[in-house]
Amino acid sequence: MTRLHIALALAVLSLTACHPGPVVGSSGNPPTSGTIAGIVSTDGNAPVVGRKVTAIDASSGAKFDATTGANGGYTIKVPPGTYRIELELQGSERVAKAPDVTKVNKSDLDPHRDIVITGR
Questions:
Q1: Cα–Cα dist 53/68, whole Å
Q2: What are 11-68's pLDDT values in tens digits?
Q3: What CA–CA distance (Å, rounded) separates 114 from 116?
Q4: Rg (Cα) of the chain, in Å, rounded?
Q5: Is 29 within the bounds of a domain?
Q6: What is the CATH number of the domain that holds 52?
Q7: What is the total count of domains within the chain?
Q8: pTM of the entire structure?
Q9: Domain ranges, residue 27
């Protein structure tokens, strides 16, 4: 591996280190321009890994999904709009804390859209 390849790899890693989780935008929908991000955890602060998080546009019903990463983080790219955030629950789980409705404008980053679940 050349020095250039190593430098490029480090640059990519440093850029992705800022995101709480995988970045996903729904295909077939309008171009994305804002970001919603947060952490999903249990009421004991353990990260919830591999869980689907969905941002739903309040006016159009368009859905944008992401799956939580190793730290429970998720990042979803969305077009401007007003969104509610939903989490895929399992078994007897329930949401103990959820973000309020999220309004995204062009180039907005709305972090700290955290979700806490109980009943695992």
A1: 7
A2: 333 333 344 544 444 444 455 589 999 999 999 999 999 999 999 999 999 999 999 9
A3: 7
A4: 16
A5: yes
A6: 2.60.40.10
A7: 1
A8: 0.73
A9: 21-118
Q: Cβ(109)–Cβ(38) under 8 Å?
A: no
92 within domain boundaries: yes
Residues 6+ apart with CB under 8 A from 30: 62, 79
Cα–Cα distance between 40 and 90 in angstroms, integer?
Answer: 14
Beta bridge partners of 58: none
| Residue among 88, 39, 93 at smallest CA distance from 65 | 88
- Given a contact cutoff of 8 angstroms between Cβ atoms, the answer to whether 34 and 55 are in contact is no
The torsion angle over the Cα atoms of residues 21, 22, 23 and 27, rounded to 10 degrees, is: -140
Q: 47-63 in b/e burial notation, b at 16+ Cβ within 10 A?
A: bbeebebbbbbeeeebe
Model confidence pLDDT, tens digit, residues 68-102: 999 999 999 999 999 999 999 999 999 999 999 99
Question: Is 39 domain-assigned?
Answer: yes
- Give 10's DSSP letter: H
Q: What is the pLDDT of residue 31?
A: 58
Q: What is the pLDDT of residue 22?
A: 46
Q: Give the integer Cα–Cα distance in Å for 38 and 112.
A: 5
